[in-house]
Design a protein that fits this description.
Layout (H helix, E strand, L loop, with lengths): L2 H21 L7 H18 L21 E3 L9 E2 L2 H8 L4 E7 L2 E8 L2 E7 L5 E3 L2 H4 L15 E8 L2 H9 L11 H9 L4 H6 L3 E10 L8 H10 L7 E4 L4 H11 L7 E8 L2 H6 L10 E5 L5 E12 L4 E13 L2 E7 L3 H7 L6 E7 L3 E7 L19 E6 L2 E6 L5 H12 L11 H10 L15 H6 L5 H14 L1 E2 L1 H7 L7 H10 L4 H6 L2 H5 L5 H13 L1 H11 L3 E2 L14 E4 L9 H10 L3 E3 L6 E5 L8 H9 L2 E3 L1 H7 L5
């Protein structure tokens, strides 16, 4: 492969990883692997002079996905250039004074205060457009919502959840499949909640790391003075050390020792010039400011020997490879297992039994394989499911190969599906663990969803089971009774429909006015018109509700539960209609506001005109813009904002 093609390939791989990480809070590759590929791309771009328009070295983050109001930052929030070389930091600083501080691993938030009161809080988002989270920010445990300074103040910082709080929250989640992967993902989801109460429950803290604006204050041209000013106002700031070329390496070593017991997630350090004017005079690159640089920790790695690959089935039929190796000490704990994610990753590592491998902990939590020294590549992929013995198949999605069990009655699918049904975000049958469900399945007490609500008939059997008793039985029955009354979003998630998480379940329920029958009867085209659903997810929903076994299970379940009625007063008169919005608006603050109205009524807003477009909304009907030309070519109506409102009887 030539260098140009390799650049294209790296851009595709890294952008896919960034989309998963920033938009969905998922990780499809380790930090170690991402950094390695990113560094390779930077090197190739410098060598060839080729920087593609979609290169992650030019873009920052990924488009936010949520129902929170969008906010365009006055100027782009850039990422920092990074290094893992301590001497390079020293060379960068030269003879200047600097500030060395933690690089915290959470969610960056921009705060604005006016007249001493918090006026807005916005996430970084993709660097250009963030999300307004003001109410949630007011729930941060250590954030001053009122300050003595009455001028216009703008600052940036990191919202974080500590390791100890992360572990406490996970300890309350019985089902391992539902536990959060790392503090960063938990924090991101907590900060971007629609309900501030959830944010408040998660113990989110805020650490200021830079001051953007404070009118009328003389900081004597010093970043240190700015941070002292914020501290005096009551903000908790990142710990920082004043450094120069003589003590920089010593201070880095101090941080290296501190991080071993530091309770706040940190993936490195930030070095910034103390001289504000000098730093600003250096300007920016396309992606990064030149007044600061990030230092990433070298991951603590250990060499060990791969002893076997275990194949772990899930409720979806996916069978994941798990590496089992000689135990090693990493970040203060003993590690002997690591997920290999999928067949593509396993093949890329060329794993073989007896291989010498290097392992590390991503974010100091999740064991990962960073490299294979011997690369014997001798792992045999099982031809049958380790649980049911039925034939397995390899499926490929977006170039990633995964191993699947297609047996619909595979026992592990039943166990995992019933555990999901009872889980916290689903029917919330409190206290019924996956271990208990497995025991009940083995005894024949539970075969399908409805059986949770018929356990009274097994009272004597349950009471006499080892580890149970009358009190345990009574608690289980009480939890099942409490779960009988539920909401449609909870039920949709509980059914375990492919690709339907908590957010999608809420979206679909709202679209159909919380009418379960409408969802069961919906077709692919109608479901695909829901924003953020699409044909793949829609097809999965239709398949689920057309499956005879599922139909019977759901009908049985509905005899025992009550779905709370939620009445929507918004008419769904735009279902199946797609609009495109362009030009300036008069009745709405921005396009997102108009888009929200259309989506509330069941319609969809697209970015480009096509043959399926109902109408192009443009107040300049006679404009010669590309979208107007396209609409005229296809015979698509061009209507003004006023015409749209009148036609669909919308009052604003």
């Amino acid at each position: 492969m030539n260098k140009k093609d390799r650049i294209k390939e790296l851009c595709q791989i890294l952008n896919k990883a960034s989309e998963a990480y920033y938009a969905k809070d998922e990780e499809i590759m380790s930090n170690f692997e991402y950094d390695s590929l990113y560094d390779e791309l930077v090197s190739l771009e410098e060598e060839t002079g080729i920087v593609l328009s979609d290169s992650p070295t030019r873009k920052v983050g990924y488009e936010p996905v949520s129902f929170l109001p969008k906010y365009t930052h006055p100027s782009p929030m850039l990422s920092l250039s990074k290094t893992k070389d301590r001497e390079e930091l020293k060379e960068w600083l030269k003879d200047k004074e600097g500030l060395l501080s933690w690089k915290l691993d959470g969610l960056t938030v921009v705060l604005t205060y006016d007249n001493g009161i918090l006026s807005t809080a916005v996430t970084r988002g993709n660097g250009e457009v963030g999300e307004v989270i003001t109410q949630n920010a007011e729930c941060f445990k250590n954030l001053p919502v009122k300050i003595s300074y009455k001028g216009h103040l703008v600052l940036r910082g990191e919202a974080v959840i500590s390791y100890s709080n992360f572990e406490k929250i996970n300890a309350k989640i019985i089902n391992p499949d539902e536990q959060y992967k790392n503090p960063r993902n938990l924090c991101s989801g907590s900060v971007r909640q629609l309900d501030p109460k959830i944010t408040a429950e998660r113990n989110v803290f805020f650490f200021a790391f830079s001051l953007v604006e404070a009118e009328g204050v003389d900081f004597k041209n010093s970043r240190y003075e700015q941070m002292s000013f914020l501290s005096e106002l009551g903000f908790e700031t990142v710990h920082e050390e004043r450094v120069n070329k003589d003590n920089l390496l010593e201070k880095i070593e101090w941080y290296a020792n501190e991080i071993k017991t530091y309770d706040i997630p940190s993936d490195g350090l930030v070095l910034m010039y103390d001289d504000i004017a000098y730093g600003n005079s250096l300007g920016n690159t396309a992606k990064a400011p030149r007044n600061a640089i990030a230092f990433k920790w070298q991951d603590e790695q250990a060499e060990t020997v791969l002893r076997k690959i275990e194949w772990s089935p899930s409720r979806t039929g996916l069978i994941n490879p798990v590496a089992v190796f000689d135990s090693v000490e990493l970040e203060g704990t003993s590690v002997s297992r690591a997920s290999v994610h999928n067949i593509s990753v396993m093949r890329s590592l060329k794993l073989g039994i007896g291989d010498r491998i290097l392992v590390y902990k991503a974010n100091m939590i999740i064991p990962q394989i960073s490299a294979n020294i011997t690369c014997s590549d001798n792992i045999e992929i099982p031809k049958t499911c380790p649980i049911c013995g039925e034939e397995t198949v390899i499926e490929s999605t977006d170039g990633t190969d995964v191993l699947m069990c297609k047996n619909e009655i595979c026992p592990v699918k039943q166990e995992k599906a019933l555990a999901l049904f009872a889980s916290r975000n689903a029917m919330n049958i409190d206290g019924v663990s996956e271990e208990t469900i497995v025991k009940f399945i083995e005894k024949g007490f539970i075969k399908e969803y409805a059986d949770f609500f018929k356990l009274e008939q097994y009272k004597n059997d349950i009471v006499s089971m080892e580890g149970f008793g009358l009190k345990s039985y009574e608690n289980i029955i009480k939890s099942c009774e409490n779960a009988r009354k539920t909401t449609l979003p909870r039920l949709l998630y509980a059914l375990g429909i492919e690709n339907i998480g908590v957010a999608n379940a809420k979206l679909i329920a709202s679209f159909y006015d919380y009418d379960f029958d409408k969802i069961r009867k919906a077709d692919v085209d109608e479901l695909s018109s829901i924003d953020q659903v699409g044909e793949v997810i829609a097809s999965g929903i239709v398949r689920f509700f057309r499956n005879e076994k599922r139909i019977n299970e759901i009908d049985n379940l509905l005899k025992y539960i009550e779905i709370e009625k939620i009445v929507s007063d918004v008419e769904k008169d735009l279902i199946g209609k797609t609009f495109v919005i362009t030009g300036s608006l008069e009745k709405f603050e921005n396009r997102d506001a108009l888009k929200e109205i259309i989506e509330q009524r069941g319609g969809k807003v697209a970015g480009s005109v096509s043959a399926k477009t109902e109408a192009l909304i443009n107040n300049d009907v006679n404009s010669s813009s590309g979208k107007n030309k396209k609409a005229k070519e296809l015979g698509i109506r061009i209507i003004s904002e006023e015409e749209f409102l009148n036609e669909f009887n919308i009052i604003v």
